[in-house]
Amino acid sequence: MKHPESKVVIIGAGLAGLSCAVRLHSSNIPFEIFEASDGVGGRVRTDQVDGFLLDRGFQVYLDAYENAGELLDLDALHLKRFEPGALVWKNGKLHKLIDVFRRPAGLWQSATAPIGRISDKLRVAKLRASLLKKPVSEIWEAADQTTEQHLRQLGFSETMIDDFFRGFYGGIFLEEELQTSSRCFEFTYKMFSQGYATLPENGMQAIPDQLAQRLPSESIHLNTPIVSIDGNTVHTADSEISASQIVIATDGKAAHQLFPQVQQPKWNSTSCLYFSASDPPTTEPMIVLKGDRKNGLINNLCVPSFVSENYAPPGKSLISISLLGDHRSHSELADEVKKEAVDWFGPAASEWTHLRTEHIHRALPVTGSETQSPSSEPDHIHICGDHTINGSIEAAIQSGSKVAKQISEKIVA
């Protein structure tokens, strides 16, 4: 079967592809989106299980994102905020580190917490002030090194790096060695300083759903993988579609398979386990970090239902536990994680009910090995996705919007 010629074919209905489509639609440029899976969102999806909202891996939306904030209707997402700080294990108990610039009442508690030294906390304030004044463009143009090297260069102590940064940024970068680009560290630090980590009231899926709802329903074709590209024609298993412009908005691996000139990114992996509890381990909407617990599986834990009550049915709490690395072959993972949680929080954790484990092998493209659109690509082929900039929601939306602008300029010209 041959489809009529379409101005633009977008391959992939993740955030990059949807953002590209929204921009094209606002310019009255016809398009079609072809998505291999059964829904929009790519790696940003949410499932409903027994009244719980389970995001596919622990994710947050940073409300300081500039490009995403311009495209999304943030008010309609009803974003719910995490408290700006963390609970960190040290010497057998949890200690609170809070952003004292937004929560001044927490100054003494944070200053006296045995996480790092007083000099480290002064350096945190200095870094925050510096990055609030630093334009994002300047961050991405700066000389690069690993985050670990950068933190040492800034003068942070080894105990601060080990007890706080490896847990907190390990959860963001999905690697605790802190080998991720220092540019990515400064960008995310700036975003955390300017705004809040949030969850949409009805789960992360609300973000791609909002974008899709702004598009003609007939323009999105689900369960329709593209198997090859031949010139200006894309091929599904049983049809071919001609296009003047083709946008490859898949993840880096799929982009490479369709267009080998695209370099495959390296990936960081994670496993996320969800539990139901009547007696949650903490009653604060904050992330819990492993701190000085060096030998366990758990990297970080939070209770999303304390951020948005819609994440759990009445009388229940949803617990999200994130592990770093690939644990797909670990057959008794849930039991071992719950046993470790008992060591963290006491016997009440033994009563938690396991809801689901998400193993996400390709969770986050490694920034520093990111795929860039090849300079030799044909004029009608465009690559977008977070792998072309850095692993973030902001980068996915920015890249899709950028490609839409390029196409609009070509078509108008």
Mean pLDDT reading = 93
Examine the secondary-structure arrangement and name the CATH architecture of the largest domain.
3-Layer(bba) Sandwich
State the helix count: 14
What would CATH call the class of the largest domain?
Alpha Beta
Overall geometric form: globular
Count the beta strands. Answer: 19
The percentage of residues in β strands lies in 15-25%
> Which sheet architecture does the biggest sheet show?
7 strands, mixed
Beginning-to-end CA distance, first to last residue: 32 Å
Uncertain segments: 369-375
The level of helicity is 25-40%
- CATH names the topology of the largest domain as FAD/NAD(P)-binding domain
SS class: alpha/beta
Q: Roughly how many Å is the radius of gyration?
A: 22 Å
Written overview of the protein:
The protein is of the alpha/beta class and 413 residues long. It has 3 domains: 6-44 and 205-264 and 367-412, 3-Layer(bba) Sandwich (FAD/NAD(P)-binding domain); 46-80 and 267-365, Protoporphyrinogen oxidase, mitochondrial, domain 2 (Polyamine Oxidase, Chain A, domain 2, Alpha-Beta Complex), CATH 3.90.660.20; 98-194. It has 14 helices and 19 strands. The chain has helices at 15-26, 66-71, 74-77, 107-112, 118-133, 136-141, 147-153, 158-173, 182-194, 206-213, 252-258, 304-307, 333-345, 393-412, and strands spanning 6-11, 31-34, 46-49, 52-55, 61-62, 79-81, 85-90, 93-98, 197-200, 220-221, 228-230, 233-235, 240-248, 267-277, 287-289, 298-302, 317-324, 353-365, 381-383. Strands 1, 2, 10, 11, 12, 13 and 19 form a 7-stranded mixed β-sheet that branches. A 7-stranded mixed β-sheet has the order 8-7-15-16-17-14-18, with helices on both faces.
